[in-house]
Design a protein that fits this description.
about 425 residues, alpha/beta, Spore Coat Polysaccharide Biosynthesis Protein SpsA, Chain A, UDP N-Acetylglucosamine Acyltransferase, domain 1, 2 domains, ten-stranded mixed sheet, nine-stranded mixed sheet, about 30% strand
Length: about 425
């Protein structure tokens, strides 16, 4: 794996995850209480012995850069690294990244100086655990020029993916990005060719790209440099390569979830509380998910009722009820409060005792969840101050709303309280 370079695409402005991406890059969005989205692909790389990793991004990269620099410090006797490459304007390239392929193209001048044989292209907003060594072995065994990791999917979500047809050897013979209507139905295949049972093949008649690729060095450079107008891998580069190169499909038959939307992100997080075993587990000693060590104290629970929930490090909970929720680091909940189906991301710091109970106008509401608050089906971003007797319950079942001036938005019926927001005492949402 020493001659494999991983390139993680941090995505664009992250509009589908807004407002969680208002003040941070998409890969820096908190996940599962104590992690960030970027920790998933980076951990998969480390567990696969791939230690040369670049993360490409162009929006709000400060917190992402800080997280990576504090987390992934390889020993000095290795040549491993995890570095952010932000979009930059140069005389030769005055534009920002125009797409996934264009982002990689703009840094080929840096990649070509490395002794690399295979380029592993990854996405920064997927939740899964993969041993990339098996993926690359398949690429080498089939003598492929490009290998795409694929999953079988049913008809309902199929139009959100790049879909393909393959021959009996696994070679890709047709590829369409997010087809609709009749174009979608034309991409139906017998997925028994992937090893599915007849029943599974009937339920999942489409082969979808996961947006994860392995490229041979010469092939990647040729495709990106010979056609600079092609800016996206799925829409342009991959379809154009089918007739010229050997494209192979690699079946990934395990849990994988695209968490690039508020609804998918919310559901994937709460699914981690499922018992007895969630679809994705962070409790896997052979392939751990790494993150920044914070050296926080244990959580303190004072006469609380907590069911089907995850409580992260450094929390202080007092006489509250928490059900089917995730509490991030340094979460603080006061007495009488109720949280149900909620993702509480916690805080970046502890508020001093004197400041919490001062009457100054600087911080009229203490950090965390105040007394007798009720929160249901919500995402509460970091460093939020929610006052006493607040109800965040979406009482009118609104599906979409923008109330940034009041510190929250609603997406797919999920209330998202924005980072650093202050929700005054007695507010009802």
């Amino acid at each position: 794996m020493k001659r494999v370079l991983a390139i993680i695409l941090g995505g664009g402005a992250g509009t589908r995850l807004y407002p969680l991406t208002k003040l941070r890059a998409k890969p820096a969005v908190p996940l599962a209480g104590k992690y960030r989205l970027i920790d998933i692909p980076v951990s998969n790389c480390i567990n696969s012995e791939i230690l040369k990793i670049y993360v490409l991004t162009q929006f709000n990269s400060a917190s992402l850069n800080r997280h990576l620099n504090r987390t992934y410090l390889f020993p000095s006797f290795t040549d491993g690294f995890v570095e952010v490459l932000s979009a930059q304007q140069t005389p030769e390239s005055p534009d920002w990244f125009q797409g996934t392929a264009d982002a990689v193209r703009k840094y080929l001048w840096m990649f070509e100086s490395l002794d690399i044989k295979h380029y592993l292209i990854l996405s920064g907003d997927h939740l899964y655990r993969m041993d990339y060594r098996d993926f690359i072995k398949r690429h080498r065994d089939t003598q492929a020029d490009i290998t795409l990791s694929v999953i079988p999917v049913s008809e309902k979500p199929a139009s959100a993916f790049g879909l393909m047809k393959i021959d009996p050897s696994g070679r890709v013979v047709n590829f369409r990005e997010k087809p609709k209507g009749e174009a979608l139905r034309e991409m139906r295949v017998d997925t028994q060719v992937l090893g599915l049972s007849p029943e599974e093949a009937q339920a999942k008649p489409y082969i979808a790209s996961m947006g994860i690729y392995v490229f041979n060095r010469d092939v990647l450079f040729d495709l990106l440099l010979s056609n600079p107008e092609r800016t996206d891998f799925g829409k342009e580069v991959i379809p154009a390569a089918i007739d010229r190169y050997n494209l192979q499909a690699y079946l990934f038959n395990d849990y994988w979830e695209d968490i690039g939307t508020i609804e998918a992100f919310f559901e994937a997080n709460l699914a981690l509380t499922k018992q007895p075993r969630p679809s994705f587990s962070f409790y896997e000693e052979s392939a751990p998910i790494y993150t920044r060590p914070r050296y926080l104290p244990p959580s303190k629970l004072l006469n609380c009722q907590i069911t089907e929930s995850i409580v992260s490090d450094g929390c202080i909970l007092k006489e509250c009820r928490v059900q089917h929720s995730i509490l991030g680091v340094r979460s603080r909940i006061q007495s009488g409060s109720v949280l149900e189906d909620t993702l509480l991301m916690g805080s970046d710091f502890y508020e001093p005792y004197e400041q919490r109970f001062s009457q100054s106008s600087v911080a009229p509401v203490p950090l965390g969840i105040g007394e007798n608050a009720t929160i249901r089906r919500a995402i509460v971003d970091k460093n939020v101050r929610i006052g006493r007797d607040v109800q965040i319950i979406n009482k009118d079942w609104v599906q979409e709303a923008d109330r940034e001036a009041q510190g929250f938005c609603i997406r797919n019926g999920i209330v998202v309280v924005m980072k650093n927001a202050v929700i005054p005492d007695g507010t009802i949402i």
